[in-house]
Amino acid sequence: MTEAKTDLSKLDGTERTQEYVDRLNGILAQMAQAPAEQRNPILEALIGLFRDWNMDKIKTRREGRPIAVTWYGNAPEILNGMGILNYNPVVDLMMHLGFTNYADAYKCDSFPLDGNVCSLIRYAIYAVQNRLLVKPNVIIAMGEPCDGELMVHQAMKESDFFGDVPIYQIDPSYGHDKKDFEYVGRQLKEMAHWLEKVTGAKYDFKRVAAVVDETNEQYRIWKEINECMKASPAPLPGFTVPEVMWPLTQHLPAGNPRCTAVARMLLGAAQENVKKHVGPIMKNEIRIVWPDLDPLWNGALTEWLAKKWNATVVMTDQQYSKPYEVIDTSNEDAMFYGLARRAVFEVPMIRQGRGFVDVLIDDLTDMINEYHPDVVIAPGHMGHKDKAGNTQFLKKVCRDMGVPLLNLTTSLFDERYTPLEKVENDISNFLSVNGFKPNPD
Ligand code: SF4
């Protein structure tokens, strides 16, 4: 039977968003039925935030209030402080891949884009072409860190769906000095006034500053959680910290006190476990540093690492909170300066992927010094050509510090690119030759 063709011109993107809401409601209902000791209040709160945010997208669109498509690191604090609902065009689609047997990824296979383009870029263009996103009033483009990002916006401009949406492109600095952040800060201020003109939303320094203050508190909590992750046994399962803190600070509405409350719950859980000296791996813990973003397949990998090797990931680039500085909100220029620094020098991928390689060397050196890994595993995401060129630097840091390094080639966002079995096999060989012993089958 052939699938009935949808008339795309009739869709405004709320249809797919409603599917997300329905699915998340179903998941929440199932979770609520589990016995009390099996329930995970942090996960339930996080899913509840995603459900509400998607509902808000639909409502905002129907009420004709402004919506922005943007990317992480594009100072979402400004948009939120101005009351402009904003979303990243790939976050929901990627989050739901695991709930739908990768349905969108399979559809992307026949999508006419080169197979070696970063999976994240493919998903973004596919989502726009198929009207799977709530139609925005403005787009805040990301001009970094890779060429694929530039291509996405060109594709948006050429699409029937997003072609008429005005785009603001931030010109990111290459360097990381005071004058660089001032340069980007001036653009962010200009962006706020551009948003006023294009959307009719009002920029009010005090309202944006209040959002920034709340995010300052979220990053402070994040740092405390990472302090806990220095303990052995590590108090939380691998990838848990970034998988919770990243959406709370970048994807869900920035500066939402509900997000801060979830961050506090995670901190409480970590502190409690440190106090009791417990964690998911209770003996012979093999600690791993993962110098890249988290893979979408992190759940299956974490389970396998623990079961087969007593191994756990204690730090990733996405989890690394040390670069985040408190933003001074006592005056407008200081606030834009701090937001600019956060945008081009603190959020992961942009921090390590753009500009001087010293950042990558320093970060890995610090992670090894502070989190005491037994090994470093770099996933080698197929899209990051810039990071692929940095392999020699990773090798040098690890060799100098006496920590074994495994360099893989995977897609962080499509587990089919390098099947998990192959990843597991490579990790097992690597750990064995470095003298670690697996658990018996
Ligand atoms: S994951 Fe890497 S390759 Fe993909 S969009 Fe981000 S920077 Fe570009």
Automatic annotation (TrEMBL):
Q: Which Pfam families match?
A: HGD-D (PF06050)
Q: Which InterPro entries does the UniProt entry name for this protein?
A: FldB/FldC_alpha/beta
Concerning Gene3D superfamilies, the annotation shows: 3.40.50.11890, 3.40.50.11900
Q: What PANTHER family does this protein map onto?
A: 2-HYDROXYACYL-COA DEHYDRATASE,D-COMPONENT (PTHR30548:SF2), 2-HYDROXYGLUTARYL-COA DEHYDRATASE, D-COMPONENT-RELATED (PTHR30548)
Q: Which family does it belong to?
A: Belongs to the FldB/FldC dehydratase alpha/beta subunit family.
Q: What is this protein called?
A: 2-hydroxyacyl-CoA dehydratase family protein
- Which species is this UniProt entry from? Mesosutterella porci
